[in-house]
Amino acid sequence: MTRVLVVGGGVAGVAAAVAASERGADVTIAEGSGSLAYNKSLLPNLLSGGCPPAGLHVADLNDISERFGIEVRLGEHVVSVDSDSGCVRTRSGRLAFDALVLATGSLYLPDDLKGVSKPGVFMMRSFDDYLALSRALTGVSRVALVGSLPLSLIVAEAISRTCRVSVFLGEGSLPRFPRHVLGMISKAAAPRGVQLLEGHLDAVVGVKRAEAVISAGTVHPCDGVVVLPRSSPSLPALDCIRGDHGGVVVDDSMRTSCRGVYAAGDCAEVRFGSASLPSRLHSSSLVMGDAAGINAAGGMARASLSRCLALDLFGVELCTAGIDAEAAKKMGLDATEVDSGEDGGSICTSLVYDRTTHRLYGIQVAGPGALSLSDYVSFVVSSGARLDDLAYHESPYLPHFNRDRSPISLTAGQALARARR
Ligand SMILES: Cc1cc2nc3c(=O)[nH]c(=O)nc-3n(C[C@H](O)[C@H](O)[C@H](O)COP(=O)(O)OP(=O)(O)OC[C@H]3O[C@@H](n4cnc5c(N)ncnc54)[C@H](O)[C@@H]3O)c2cc1C
After folding, report:
1. Which residues make up the CATH 3.30.390.30 domain(s) of the chain?
2. Residue 285: CB within 6 Å of ligand 1?
3. 37 Cβ inside 6 Å of ligand 1
4. Is the pLDDT of residue 52 over 70?
5. Which terminus of the chain has a smaller tally of CB atoms within 10 A, N or C?
6. What is the CATH number of domain 121-227?
7. How would you label 361-380 residue by residue, b for 16+ Cβ within 10 Å and e otherwise?
8. CA of 269 to the centre of ligand 1 (A)
Protein backbone atom coordinates (compact mmCIF):
# COMPACT_ATOMS: atom_id res chain seq x y z
CA MET A 1 0.00 0.00 0.00
CA THR A 2 1.40 3.44 -0.95
CA ARG A 3 2.30 5.50 2.14
CA VAL A 4 1.15 9.08 1.51
CA LEU A 5 2.30 11.71 3.99
CA VAL A 6 0.40 15.01 3.89
CA VAL A 7 2.08 17.94 5.66
CA GLY A 8 -0.50 20.49 6.87
CA GLY A 9 -4.10 20.01 7.95
CA GLY A 10 -5.77 22.95 6.20
CA VAL A 11 -8.19 22.99 3.24
CA ALA A 12 -5.59 21.66 0.80
CA GLY A 13 -4.11 19.06 3.17
CA VAL A 14 -7.45 17.58 4.21
CA ALA A 15 -8.64 17.43 0.58
CA ALA A 16 -5.38 15.68 -0.42
CA ALA A 17 -5.58 13.21 2.48
CA VAL A 18 -9.21 12.24 1.77
CA ALA A 19 -8.58 11.90 -1.99
CA ALA A 20 -5.50 9.70 -1.40
CA SER A 21 -7.28 7.51 1.14
CA GLU A 22 -10.26 7.04 -1.22
CA ARG A 23 -7.74 5.62 -3.73
CA GLY A 24 -6.55 3.07 -1.21
CA ALA A 25 -3.39 4.75 0.10
CA ASP A 26 -2.20 4.53 3.70
CA VAL A 27 -2.47 8.22 4.67
CA THR A 28 -0.99 10.26 7.51
CA ILE A 29 -1.47 14.00 8.09
CA ALA A 30 1.35 15.76 9.98
CA GLU A 31 -0.12 19.00 11.34
CA GLY A 32 2.20 21.36 13.20
CA SER A 33 -0.41 22.98 15.45
CA GLY A 34 -2.72 21.43 18.03
CA SER A 35 -5.74 21.10 15.70
CA LEU A 36 -6.76 20.99 12.06
CA ALA A 37 -6.79 24.49 10.52
CA TYR A 38 -9.71 26.89 10.64
CA ASN A 39 -11.53 27.66 7.43
CA LYS A 40 -10.03 31.15 7.18
CA SER A 41 -12.64 32.34 4.69
CA LEU A 42 -15.22 32.11 7.50
CA LEU A 43 -13.25 34.23 9.98
CA PRO A 44 -14.84 37.56 8.88
CA ASN A 45 -18.23 35.98 9.71
CA LEU A 46 -17.20 36.06 13.38
CA LEU A 47 -17.36 39.87 13.16
CA SER A 48 -20.98 39.90 12.08
CA GLY A 49 -21.95 36.96 14.30
CA GLY A 50 -22.87 34.86 11.25
CA CYS A 51 -20.96 31.65 11.94
CA PRO A 52 -20.80 29.82 15.27
CA PRO A 53 -17.19 29.06 16.32
CA ALA A 54 -17.94 25.29 16.32
CA GLY A 55 -18.33 25.24 12.53
CA LEU A 56 -15.02 26.88 11.69
CA HIS A 57 -12.56 23.98 11.35
CA VAL A 58 -11.91 22.67 7.83
CA ALA A 59 -12.91 19.14 8.91
CA ASP A 60 -13.91 17.10 11.93
CA LEU A 61 -10.87 15.24 13.28
CA ASN A 62 -12.82 12.14 14.38
CA ASP A 63 -14.68 12.03 11.09
CA ILE A 64 -11.59 11.93 8.93
CA SER A 65 -9.88 9.42 11.25
CA GLU A 66 -12.86 7.06 11.56
CA ARG A 67 -14.53 7.44 8.14
CA PHE A 68 -11.39 7.56 6.01
CA GLY A 69 -8.87 5.76 8.26
CA ILE A 70 -6.46 8.71 8.07
CA GLU A 71 -3.90 8.97 10.88
CA VAL A 72 -3.74 12.58 12.08
CA ARG A 73 -0.58 13.51 14.02
CA LEU A 74 -1.20 16.86 15.72
CA GLY A 75 1.74 18.93 17.01
CA GLU A 76 3.96 17.27 14.36
CA HIS A 77 5.80 20.20 12.79
CA VAL A 78 7.82 19.18 9.73
CA VAL A 79 11.21 20.91 9.64
CA SER A 80 12.77 19.51 6.45
CA VAL A 81 12.12 17.13 3.56
CA ASP A 82 14.59 14.66 2.05
CA SER A 83 12.92 13.40 -1.11
CA ASP A 84 15.84 11.11 -2.06
CA SER A 85 15.52 9.01 1.09
CA GLY A 86 11.70 9.46 1.25
CA CYS A 87 11.60 10.90 4.72
CA VAL A 88 10.80 14.14 6.57
CA ARG A 89 12.39 15.40 9.77
CA THR A 90 9.95 16.69 12.37
CA ARG A 91 10.66 18.49 15.64
CA SER A 92 10.41 15.12 17.41
CA GLY A 93 11.76 12.55 14.94
CA ARG A 94 11.35 11.26 11.37
CA LEU A 95 8.46 10.07 9.19
CA ALA A 96 8.89 7.95 6.06
CA PHE A 97 6.79 8.24 2.89
CA ASP A 98 6.40 6.87 -0.64
CA ALA A 99 4.71 10.11 -1.76
CA LEU A 100 4.52 13.45 0.01
CA VAL A 101 1.97 16.26 -0.30
CA LEU A 102 3.07 19.65 1.00
CA ALA A 103 0.07 21.69 2.10
CA THR A 104 1.68 24.03 4.61
CA GLY A 105 -0.24 27.19 3.65
CA SER A 106 1.13 30.63 4.38
CA LEU A 107 2.70 32.52 7.25
CA TYR A 108 1.95 36.11 8.35
CA LEU A 109 4.77 38.59 7.85
CA PRO A 110 5.75 40.95 10.69
CA ASP A 111 4.19 44.41 10.31
CA ASP A 112 6.47 47.43 10.74
CA LEU A 113 3.65 50.00 11.14
CA LYS A 114 4.64 52.52 13.86
CA GLY A 115 2.51 52.39 17.02
CA VAL A 116 1.10 48.96 16.25
CA SER A 117 1.62 47.68 19.82
CA LYS A 118 -0.75 50.30 21.33
CA PRO A 119 -3.96 49.11 23.00
CA GLY A 120 -6.85 49.50 20.56
CA VAL A 121 -4.84 48.06 17.62
CA PHE A 122 -6.13 44.70 16.41
CA MET A 123 -3.62 42.60 14.45
CA MET A 124 -5.75 39.99 12.67
CA ARG A 125 -3.69 36.79 12.50
CA SER A 126 -5.82 34.13 14.13
CA PHE A 127 -9.26 32.95 15.15
CA ASP A 128 -8.66 34.50 18.61
CA ASP A 129 -7.86 37.89 17.02
CA TYR A 130 -11.17 37.88 15.12
CA LEU A 131 -13.00 36.86 18.29
CA ALA A 132 -11.26 39.63 20.31
CA LEU A 133 -12.22 42.27 17.71
CA SER A 134 -15.77 40.98 17.60
CA ARG A 135 -16.04 41.42 21.40
CA ALA A 136 -14.44 44.87 21.36
CA LEU A 137 -16.64 46.28 18.59
CA THR A 138 -19.43 47.44 20.90
CA GLY A 139 -17.03 49.94 22.54
CA VAL A 140 -15.59 51.37 19.32
CA SER A 141 -17.15 54.10 17.16
CA ARG A 142 -14.58 54.73 14.38
CA VAL A 143 -12.08 52.21 13.04
CA ALA A 144 -9.11 52.76 10.71
CA LEU A 145 -8.49 49.62 8.68
CA VAL A 146 -5.52 48.60 6.56
CA GLY A 147 -4.87 45.41 4.59
CA SER A 148 -4.89 43.93 1.14
CA LEU A 149 -7.94 44.00 -1.09
CA PRO A 150 -10.50 42.46 -1.25
CA LEU A 151 -10.14 41.15 2.35
CA SER A 152 -10.02 44.69 3.79
CA LEU A 153 -13.41 45.42 2.18
CA ILE A 154 -14.92 42.14 3.41
CA VAL A 155 -13.83 42.98 6.97
CA ALA A 156 -14.92 46.64 6.64
CA GLU A 157 -18.40 45.56 5.58
CA ALA A 158 -18.66 43.13 8.52
CA ILE A 159 -17.68 45.71 11.16
CA SER A 160 -19.66 48.57 9.59
CA ARG A 161 -22.75 47.14 11.29
CA THR A 162 -21.56 48.69 14.56
CA CYS A 163 -19.08 51.48 13.72
CA ARG A 164 -17.77 53.85 11.06
CA VAL A 165 -14.77 52.59 9.09
CA SER A 166 -12.00 54.30 7.10
CA VAL A 167 -10.25 51.82 4.80
CA PHE A 168 -6.72 52.85 3.74
CA LEU A 169 -6.12 51.38 0.32
CA GLY A 170 -2.44 52.27 -0.19
CA GLU A 171 -1.98 52.42 -3.93
CA GLY A 172 -4.13 49.33 -4.18
CA SER A 173 -6.93 48.75 -6.56
CA LEU A 174 -9.15 45.70 -6.42
CA PRO A 175 -6.91 42.88 -7.71
CA ARG A 176 -7.73 41.95 -11.32
CA PHE A 177 -10.58 44.51 -11.65
CA PRO A 178 -10.41 47.77 -13.61
CA ARG A 179 -10.03 50.83 -11.35
CA HIS A 180 -13.57 52.16 -11.86
CA VAL A 181 -14.98 49.04 -10.09
CA LEU A 182 -13.44 50.29 -6.84
CA GLY A 183 -15.31 53.56 -7.51
CA MET A 184 -18.60 51.62 -7.71
CA ILE A 185 -17.84 49.94 -4.37
CA SER A 186 -16.77 53.22 -2.78
CA LYS A 187 -20.11 54.83 -3.74
CA ALA A 188 -22.06 51.85 -2.36
CA ALA A 189 -20.02 51.75 0.88
CA ALA A 190 -20.37 55.46 1.78
CA PRO A 191 -24.01 55.30 3.00
CA ARG A 192 -22.96 52.38 5.26
CA GLY A 193 -20.41 54.62 7.04
CA VAL A 194 -17.40 53.16 5.20
CA GLN A 195 -14.97 55.52 3.54
CA LEU A 196 -12.33 54.26 1.08
CA LEU A 197 -9.18 56.40 1.22
CA GLU A 198 -6.16 56.31 -1.03
CA GLY A 199 -2.80 56.34 0.76
CA HIS A 200 -0.81 54.26 3.19
CA LEU A 201 -1.04 54.24 6.98
CA ASP A 202 2.20 55.74 8.30
CA ALA A 203 1.63 55.46 12.06
CA VAL A 204 -0.84 54.84 14.86
CA VAL A 205 -0.73 57.62 17.48
CA GLY A 206 -2.28 58.19 20.93
CA VAL A 207 -1.21 58.70 24.54
CA LYS A 208 -2.32 55.50 26.24
CA ARG A 209 -4.09 53.80 23.35
CA ALA A 210 -4.81 54.27 19.62
CA GLU A 211 -6.50 57.66 19.20
CA ALA A 212 -5.70 58.44 15.55
CA VAL A 213 -3.76 57.27 12.51
CA ILE A 214 -1.51 59.35 10.27
CA SER A 215 -1.59 59.00 6.51
CA ALA A 216 0.36 61.31 4.16
CA GLY A 217 0.72 63.93 6.92
CA THR A 218 -3.02 64.02 7.74
CA VAL A 219 -4.35 62.96 11.15
CA HIS A 220 -7.45 60.74 11.05
CA PRO A 221 -9.04 60.40 14.52
CA CYS A 222 -10.26 56.90 15.44
CA ASP A 223 -10.66 54.75 18.56
CA GLY A 224 -9.67 51.43 16.97
CA VAL A 225 -7.20 50.27 14.31
CA VAL A 226 -7.53 46.97 12.43
CA VAL A 227 -4.46 45.61 10.62
CA LEU A 228 -4.77 42.66 8.21
CA PRO A 229 -1.13 41.57 7.87
CA ARG A 230 0.41 40.36 4.62
CA SER A 231 1.46 36.72 4.32
CA SER A 232 3.81 34.59 2.25
CA PRO A 233 4.15 30.83 1.60
CA SER A 234 5.25 28.75 4.57
CA LEU A 235 7.49 25.76 3.74
CA PRO A 236 9.89 23.37 5.47
CA ALA A 237 13.47 23.21 4.18
CA LEU A 238 13.46 21.36 0.84
CA ASP A 239 15.20 21.29 -2.53
CA CYS A 240 12.21 21.78 -4.87
CA ILE A 241 12.21 24.69 -7.32
CA ARG A 242 10.62 27.85 -5.88
CA GLY A 243 8.44 30.26 -7.86
CA ASP A 244 8.41 34.02 -8.36
CA HIS A 245 6.33 34.51 -5.19
CA GLY A 246 8.17 32.14 -2.80
CA GLY A 247 5.93 29.05 -3.19
CA VAL A 248 6.88 25.61 -4.55
CA VAL A 249 6.37 25.41 -8.31
CA VAL A 250 3.94 22.70 -9.43
CA ASP A 251 2.55 21.57 -12.78
CA ASP A 252 -1.17 20.97 -13.27
CA SER A 253 -0.80 17.51 -11.67
CA MET A 254 0.59 19.30 -8.57
CA ARG A 255 4.02 17.63 -9.07
CA THR A 256 7.02 19.60 -7.82
CA SER A 257 10.53 19.31 -9.23
CA CYS A 258 11.36 16.66 -6.56
CA ARG A 259 10.39 13.07 -7.32
CA GLY A 260 7.39 11.85 -5.30
CA VAL A 261 6.73 15.32 -3.82
CA TYR A 262 3.47 17.18 -4.58
CA ALA A 263 2.28 20.56 -3.30
CA ALA A 264 -1.15 22.17 -3.00
CA GLY A 265 -2.82 25.29 -1.61
CA ASP A 266 -1.21 28.55 -0.50
CA CYS A 267 2.32 27.07 -0.40
CA ALA A 268 2.21 26.18 -4.13
CA GLU A 269 2.57 28.19 -7.35
CA VAL A 270 1.37 26.89 -10.68
CA ARG A 271 3.73 27.03 -13.64
CA PHE A 272 2.37 29.44 -16.26
CA GLY A 273 4.59 29.77 -19.34
CA SER A 274 8.00 30.90 -18.11
CA ALA A 275 6.51 32.33 -14.89
CA SER A 276 4.53 30.93 -11.95
CA LEU A 277 1.38 32.15 -10.23
CA PRO A 278 0.09 31.72 -6.68
CA SER A 279 -3.66 31.33 -6.14
CA ARG A 280 -4.01 31.75 -2.37
CA LEU A 281 -7.74 30.98 -2.56
CA HIS A 282 -9.93 28.45 -0.75
CA SER A 283 -11.38 27.18 -4.04
CA SER A 284 -7.95 26.67 -5.65
CA SER A 285 -6.58 25.00 -2.50
CA LEU A 286 -9.43 22.48 -2.53
CA VAL A 287 -8.97 21.50 -6.17
CA MET A 288 -5.17 21.44 -5.89
CA GLY A 289 -5.47 19.22 -2.79
CA ASP A 290 -7.81 16.78 -4.58
CA ALA A 291 -5.46 16.46 -7.56
CA ALA A 292 -2.32 16.17 -5.39
CA GLY A 293 -3.90 13.45 -3.21
CA ILE A 294 -5.08 11.38 -6.18
CA ASN A 295 -1.71 11.60 -7.92
CA ALA A 296 0.25 10.88 -4.73
CA ALA A 297 -1.80 7.67 -4.40
CA GLY A 298 -0.81 6.63 -7.93
CA GLY A 299 -3.80 8.07 -9.84
CA MET A 300 -3.94 10.56 -12.70
CA ALA A 301 -5.68 13.88 -12.08
CA ARG A 302 -5.18 17.34 -13.47
CA ALA A 303 -6.32 20.41 -11.53
CA SER A 304 -8.38 22.68 -13.73
CA LEU A 305 -7.65 25.97 -11.98
CA SER A 306 -9.19 29.34 -12.75
CA ARG A 307 -8.30 31.45 -9.65
CA CYS A 308 -11.97 32.42 -9.39
CA LEU A 309 -13.52 34.72 -6.84
CA ALA A 310 -17.15 35.73 -6.34
CA LEU A 311 -18.10 38.46 -3.87
CA ASP A 312 -20.90 40.78 -2.90
CA LEU A 313 -19.31 43.94 -1.45
CA PHE A 314 -21.80 46.50 -0.12
CA GLY A 315 -24.35 45.22 -2.65
CA VAL A 316 -21.95 45.36 -5.61
CA GLU A 317 -21.75 41.89 -7.15
CA LEU A 318 -18.34 40.82 -8.47
CA CYS A 319 -16.88 37.75 -10.06
CA THR A 320 -13.52 37.14 -11.65
CA ALA A 321 -11.36 34.31 -12.95
CA GLY A 322 -7.87 34.12 -14.43
CA ILE A 323 -5.42 36.98 -14.64
CA ASP A 324 -5.52 40.69 -15.48
CA ALA A 325 -3.81 42.35 -18.43
CA GLU A 326 -0.85 43.54 -16.35
CA ALA A 327 -0.09 40.04 -15.02
CA ALA A 328 -0.47 38.64 -18.53
CA LYS A 329 2.11 41.07 -19.89
CA LYS A 330 4.53 40.18 -17.06
CA MET A 331 4.21 36.56 -18.19
CA GLY A 332 5.14 37.43 -21.73
CA LEU A 333 1.61 36.94 -23.11
CA ASP A 334 0.46 39.18 -25.92
CA ALA A 335 -2.66 39.99 -23.92
CA THR A 336 -4.93 42.95 -24.22
CA GLU A 337 -8.06 44.04 -22.38
CA VAL A 338 -11.46 45.19 -23.45
CA ASP A 339 -13.62 46.85 -20.83
CA SER A 340 -17.34 47.46 -21.30
CA GLY A 341 -17.62 49.27 -18.00
CA GLU A 342 -18.89 52.59 -16.85
CA ASP A 343 -19.31 53.60 -13.24
CA GLY A 344 -23.08 53.37 -13.41
CA GLY A 345 -25.81 50.96 -12.44
CA SER A 346 -25.11 48.61 -15.34
CA ILE A 347 -22.91 45.54 -15.45
CA CYS A 348 -19.21 46.05 -16.34
CA THR A 349 -17.28 43.27 -18.03
CA SER A 350 -13.62 43.13 -18.95
CA LEU A 351 -11.83 40.37 -20.81
CA VAL A 352 -8.11 39.66 -21.03
CA TYR A 353 -7.18 37.75 -24.17
CA ASP A 354 -4.34 37.04 -26.55
CA ARG A 355 -4.84 39.22 -29.60
CA THR A 356 -3.30 36.61 -31.92
CA THR A 357 -4.80 33.34 -30.70
CA HIS A 358 -7.93 34.97 -29.15
CA ARG A 359 -7.53 32.71 -26.09
CA LEU A 360 -9.07 34.11 -22.91
CA TYR A 361 -6.82 34.51 -19.87
CA GLY A 362 -9.09 36.48 -17.59
CA ILE A 363 -12.66 37.70 -17.08
CA GLN A 364 -13.95 40.28 -14.60
CA VAL A 365 -17.65 41.06 -14.17
CA ALA A 366 -19.06 43.68 -11.76
CA GLY A 367 -22.63 44.84 -11.25
CA PRO A 368 -26.17 43.45 -10.87
CA GLY A 369 -26.32 39.73 -11.73
CA ALA A 370 -22.52 39.20 -11.78
CA LEU A 371 -22.69 36.47 -9.14
CA SER A 372 -24.98 34.36 -11.33
CA LEU A 373 -22.14 34.21 -13.89
CA SER A 374 -19.38 33.09 -11.52
CA ASP A 375 -19.31 29.34 -12.36
CA TYR A 376 -19.51 30.12 -16.06
CA VAL A 377 -16.66 32.63 -15.82
CA SER A 378 -14.53 30.08 -13.95
CA PHE A 379 -15.17 27.37 -16.55
CA VAL A 380 -14.53 29.65 -19.52
CA VAL A 381 -11.08 30.55 -18.19
CA SER A 382 -10.04 27.09 -16.94
CA SER A 383 -11.11 25.41 -20.19
CA GLY A 384 -9.02 27.78 -22.34
CA ALA A 385 -11.99 29.12 -24.36
CA ARG A 386 -11.43 31.68 -27.14
CA LEU A 387 -13.25 34.93 -27.95
CA ASP A 388 -14.73 33.18 -30.99
CA ASP A 389 -16.35 30.57 -28.68
CA LEU A 390 -18.00 33.27 -26.58
CA ALA A 391 -19.05 35.96 -29.05
CA TYR A 392 -21.94 33.88 -30.41
CA HIS A 393 -22.45 31.65 -27.41
CA GLU A 394 -26.07 31.02 -26.46
CA SER A 395 -26.90 31.76 -22.84
CA PRO A 396 -30.27 31.46 -21.13
CA TYR A 397 -32.65 34.41 -21.53
CA LEU A 398 -33.39 35.93 -18.11
CA PRO A 399 -36.25 38.45 -18.43
CA HIS A 400 -35.81 39.87 -14.89
CA PHE A 401 -32.25 40.94 -15.77
CA ASN A 402 -33.66 42.96 -18.67
CA ARG A 403 -31.05 41.69 -21.07
CA ASP A 404 -31.24 39.21 -23.89
CA ARG A 405 -27.51 38.83 -24.51
CA SER A 406 -24.94 37.84 -21.92
CA PRO A 407 -22.62 40.76 -21.07
CA ILE A 408 -19.68 38.38 -21.55
CA SER A 409 -20.81 37.44 -25.04
CA LEU A 410 -21.34 41.12 -25.95
CA THR A 411 -17.89 42.08 -24.66
CA ALA A 412 -16.31 39.12 -26.49
CA GLY A 413 -17.95 40.41 -29.69
CA GLN A 414 -16.39 43.86 -29.14
CA ALA A 415 -13.00 42.29 -28.45
CA LEU A 416 -13.23 40.13 -31.56
CA ALA A 417 -14.07 43.13 -33.72
CA ARG A 418 -11.10 44.99 -32.24
CA ALA A 419 -8.76 42.00 -32.70
CA ARG A 420 -9.75 41.72 -36.38
CA ARG A 421 -9.04 45.39 -37.16
C1 LIG B 1 -9.26 36.14 6.74
C2 LIG B 1 -9.18 35.36 5.45
C3 LIG B 1 -10.29 35.32 4.61
C4 LIG B 1 -10.24 34.60 3.41
N5 LIG B 1 -11.33 34.58 2.60
C6 LIG B 1 -11.30 33.87 1.45
C7 LIG B 1 -12.42 33.82 0.58
O8 LIG B 1 -13.46 34.45 0.84
N9 LIG B 1 -12.36 33.06 -0.54
C10 LIG B 1 -11.25 32.35 -0.87
O11 LIG B 1 -11.25 31.63 -1.88
N12 LIG B 1 -10.15 32.36 -0.05
C13 LIG B 1 -10.15 33.11 1.08
N14 LIG B 1 -9.04 33.14 1.88
C15 LIG B 1 -7.85 32.35 1.50
C16 LIG B 1 -7.99 30.88 1.95
O17 LIG B 1 -8.41 30.83 3.28
C18 LIG B 1 -6.65 30.17 1.79
O19 LIG B 1 -6.30 30.18 0.41
C20 LIG B 1 -6.69 28.72 2.28
O21 LIG B 1 -6.98 28.67 3.65
C22 LIG B 1 -5.36 28.02 2.04
O23 LIG B 1 -5.45 26.70 2.50
P24 LIG B 1 -4.15 25.82 2.77
O25 LIG B 1 -4.63 24.46 3.13
O26 LIG B 1 -3.19 25.97 1.66
O27 LIG B 1 -3.45 26.51 4.03
P28 LIG B 1 -3.94 26.68 5.54
O29 LIG B 1 -5.42 26.69 5.66
O30 LIG B 1 -3.18 27.85 6.05
O31 LIG B 1 -3.40 25.36 6.26
C32 LIG B 1 -2.02 25.09 6.39
C33 LIG B 1 -1.82 24.16 7.58
O34 LIG B 1 -0.47 23.69 7.57
C35 LIG B 1 0.06 23.70 8.89
N36 LIG B 1 1.52 23.80 8.77
C37 LIG B 1 2.25 24.86 8.29
N38 LIG B 1 3.56 24.55 8.27
C39 LIG B 1 3.66 23.27 8.75
C40 LIG B 1 4.76 22.40 8.95
N41 LIG B 1 6.01 22.76 8.64
N42 LIG B 1 4.52 21.16 9.45
C43 LIG B 1 3.25 20.76 9.72
N44 LIG B 1 2.17 21.55 9.56
C45 LIG B 1 2.38 22.79 9.07
C46 LIG B 1 -0.60 24.93 9.54
O47 LIG B 1 -0.60 24.83 10.95
C48 LIG B 1 -2.01 24.86 8.93
O49 LIG B 1 -2.88 24.11 9.73
C50 LIG B 1 -9.06 33.89 3.06
C51 LIG B 1 -7.92 33.94 3.91
C52 LIG B 1 -7.99 34.68 5.08
C53 LIG B 1 -6.77 34.73 5.99
Report:
1. 309-420
2. yes
3. yes
4. no
5. C
6. 3.50.50.60
7. bbbbbbbebbeebbebbbeb
8. 14
